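Dear colleague,

As promised, here are the two records you asked about, laid out in our usual form so they can be pasted straight into your sheet.

NAME FIELD: protein one
SEQUENCE, THEN STRUCTURE:
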Amino acid sequence: MTESNARISKAVVPAAGLGTRFLPATKATPKEMLPVVDKPAIQYVVEEAVAAGLSDVLMVTGRNKRPLEDHFDRNYELEQALSRKGDEARLARVQESSDLATMHYVRQGDPRGLGHAVLCAAPHVGNEPFAVLLGDDLIDPRDPLLARMVDVQEREGGSVIALMEVAPEQIHLYGSAAVETTGEDDVVRVTGLVEKPDPADAPSNYAVIGRYVLDPSIFGILRQTEPGRGGEIQLTDALQKLTEDEKVGGPVHGVVFKGRRYDTGDRGDYLRAIVRLACEREDLGPDFRAWLRSYVTEEM
C-alpha cells in the first residue's frame, strides 16, 4: 500500500474565522465554542471525525482561538473538584473532550480563505489523503456522511466532496458542481465546480457542503492558485483544476447527502439546530417538547 493510498487517519478543521455574524457574542469567544445545547459546536465536528476513524485532528486557528485548545486539553482543577464531589457523570463529560483524539494546532496567520487554511495543513498531513471538516456544518451522527466519503475515496482514489441538493435560488450561497451519474445512487462523478454562481449560471443545484476527503496533490495546486472570489484562495478553484486533469491527483467524486445537517454559521439555523437536538435528547427532550408545544400554541 503506497503512502498516498494509505488508510485515512488525519482530519483538518479550519477554525480561524472571526464569526462576525454572531457579534457581540464572538467578540472574545470563538464562534466554534458557542454551545449547541451543552457542547460547543466544534466538539460535534471532532466527534464526527473520530467516528469515521480519523484519530489525528489538526485545527487551523487564528488569533483569539486559545479556548479551542483549552477545551480539548485537560482541566485538572475542575476534574479534581468534580471528583471530590463524587460527580462522576459531569467528570466523565469534562474528560470526554480531552480523550477524543490526538489534537494538533497551527495558526493560519493572514486569513486568505479556505484554500489557504487547507494549505497550512500541508506540513502536518504530508503525502497522504486527508479529510477537511468545516465547523459551521454539523452532520447528525446517525447519518455517517464522512465515513461514506472515506469508503468512496479508498475505493476510487482521488478526492471526494460532499454534495446536497438545494433550491435553485439558494445555489448562489454555495459552490455548485457539474456532475455525471455513476452506478451508485449516492455517488456522482464531478466534472466541474463553480464558487457561488448566479443561479442562471449554476451547472446544477448540487451544492458543496463542508466535508471533503482530499488527495494530497491538492497542496501543489493550492500553492499555484491565485486569489479568486472575495480576494481569497478558494478550495473550490483548486478542486476545479483536479476535475480538469485526473493525471494530477485522480478523479473527483461527490457523495450526495440526504441526511440531517445543521448549519451553525447562520443565526436562525443555529437556533433551529439547538431546538432540534434538544428535542431529540432523552434527558431533555420530553420536558422541552412539552414546553415547546405549549409555547407555540400560546403564540399562535
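NAME FIELD: protein two
SEQUENCE, THEN STRUCTURE:
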Amino acid sequence: MHLPLHLRSPRNAAAVAIGTAAIAGIAWYTLRRPRRSAEEIEHERRELLASIGRITDGSITDAPIRQDGQAGTSAGSLIIVYNYRIAGVSYECAQDVSSLAEHVRDVRADLPIQVRYDMHNPGNSIVVSESWSGLRLSPHPHDHETT
C-alpha cells in the first residue's frame, strides 16, 4: 500500500488516529447516552420558570378537570387552563398538574392567580411547581380542626 508522503509521518498518523478515536467516541456517546423522559423535561422546565420566571397576574378560566371530562382531583390528568396579559398581548395556556396534585387541592377559580413566565418566550408559563405556587387555594378542611 502506498501512502502519500505527508501521511507517512508518525506525527500525522497519530493525529489521524486520535481524530478518528475522538469522532468514534462522540458518536458512541451521542447514540448511547440516556434519554430524559418527558416528565424529567417538564420538571426541569417548571423549576427553571419557578426560579427565574417573571411574575404577572392572571386568572383561571377552567378549574382542574380530568381528561375524561369529570371534575375533581381524583385519578387522571388534572389540567388548569388560565390566561394572562403581557405588554398588551393576551395568552391562554394550560398546565397539566397531575404530578402536583397536593399543591392544587380545592383551586379557587374566582380569585386572581400569579403566573410565572419566560420573559424571552411569554407563552412559556406555569401557575404551580414543586417549589412555587401562584394559586390561591381554599383552606383545607383538616387545617382548622382542633383536637
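A couple of things worth noting about protein two: The longest strand covers residues 54-65. Residues 1-33 form one domain.

Best,
R.
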